[in-house]
Amino acid sequence: MRALRIVQKFGGSSVADAESIKRVARRIVATDEQGHDVCVIVSAMGDTTDELLDLAQRVSPNPRPRELDMLLTAGERMSAALLAMAINDLGHTARSFTGSQAGVLTTESHGDARIIDITPGRIESALGDGDVVIVAGFQGVSQTTKDVTTLGRGASDTTAVALAAALGASFCEIYSDVDGVFTADPRIVPGAQRIPEISYDEMLEMAANGAKILHLRCVEYARREHVDVHVRSSFSDKPGTWVKDLDEGKRMEAEAALITGIAHDRTEAKITVAGVPDKIGNASRIFEAVARAGINIDMIVQNASVQDNTTAISFTLPQNDGPKAMAALAAVQDEIGFAQATYNDKIGKVSVIGVGMRSHPGVSAHTFTALAEAGINISMISTSEIRISVVVPIDDIDRAVRAVHTAFGLDASGEAVVYAGTGR
Known about the structure:
Blueprint: E1 5-10, H1 18-33, E2 37-42, H2 48-59, H3 65-89, E3 94-97, E4 104-106, E5 115-118, H4 121-128, E6 132-136, E7 139-142, E8 148-150, H5 156-167, E9 171-176, E10 197-199, H6 200-208, H7 216-225, E11 229-233, E12 241-244, H8 248-256, E13 261-265, E14 268-277, H9 282-292, E15 300-302, E16 310-318, H10 322-336, E17 340-344, E18 347-353, H11 363-373, E19 380-384, E20 387-393, H12 397-407
Parallel strand pairs: 1-2, 1-9, 2-6, 3-6, 4-7, 9-11, 10-12
Antiparallel strand pairs: 4-5, 7-8, 11-12, 13-18, 14-16, 14-17, 15-16, 18-20, 19-20
Helix pairs in contact: 1-3, 2-3, 5-7, 6-7, 9-10, 11-12
């Protein structure tokens, strides 16, 4: 009987080249030699996925989604096979599997499929034989069409947590090129501090608002299945960050720390629909049109009605969805009767996150004061129970993050280390 069953995931920066793959193999072998069952999920090497996308665009400007998924899954399969070879050369036996061979069953949506179920029979068998199992992340097989699918960029994290839940693993380790989850992006705030433990709720807010250390769906899955996630660096042996349910003592300690971290997002854009007749149902018609285009909305602000009984509605959305949203709005302009829709992608979002704000008044005022003193204008505000988000000009993002981080006393004296420069 082995001591523990552990799932480990290594990002693209951790397996960027042959020497990196050999270093990761040594780390995996060390875990295996401690008597643990080890299942590893691996991303594509470095920028392989981007290179494959670029190649596809040069061959075909509008490739069919099915064939694009067939192409993009090759990157993770390469990493898995190479990592298995490196482990075998260290005297341990390893077997690599594609997502479909590992039993990852998904919806049929290409490019952004969802995991429906995992049937890990082959993995269980290989672990029973004493092998290290290597699984290509980011991919699965449609339960209905049997086609290869991909789960969206960054979704190897989700594969890892889902497999940890299916295998009954003790925990899931997510390895990247930073030493855990920090109070802000270390590339922007060199004095950002590592967070030893963070709740699922706080990590969800961090991930949803731009922190790229963990994929959002990975955290959602971990919370639902109660999988403890250990975020670590593959370049060091530092203790990392645990993402987990916090017991009452830890929760009270977390509440005592007013703010957990500052997240930012440069990938959003803002659309303002001006001159909207102030009539019941018009807001519904606007957002129904956007929803039909398959676009997720983040923040929404509606102005008070002006003298001519019109109003303006602004909302934020992913930049990649901007053209679709503008086309959807143009299609309903005559029906709704609004004057114009304008698009602005020169904005970004900064979010202040912490369970402590539930019981501490004045967090909003402190945030806005820090931004005002830094000379930063706010165009939109959104809040949840443990988050305050503001939209600011894109050129002010870095200054805004640093200003708020300092204002809440989160700066440390030392400098956080980013080993490979990507955060994945």
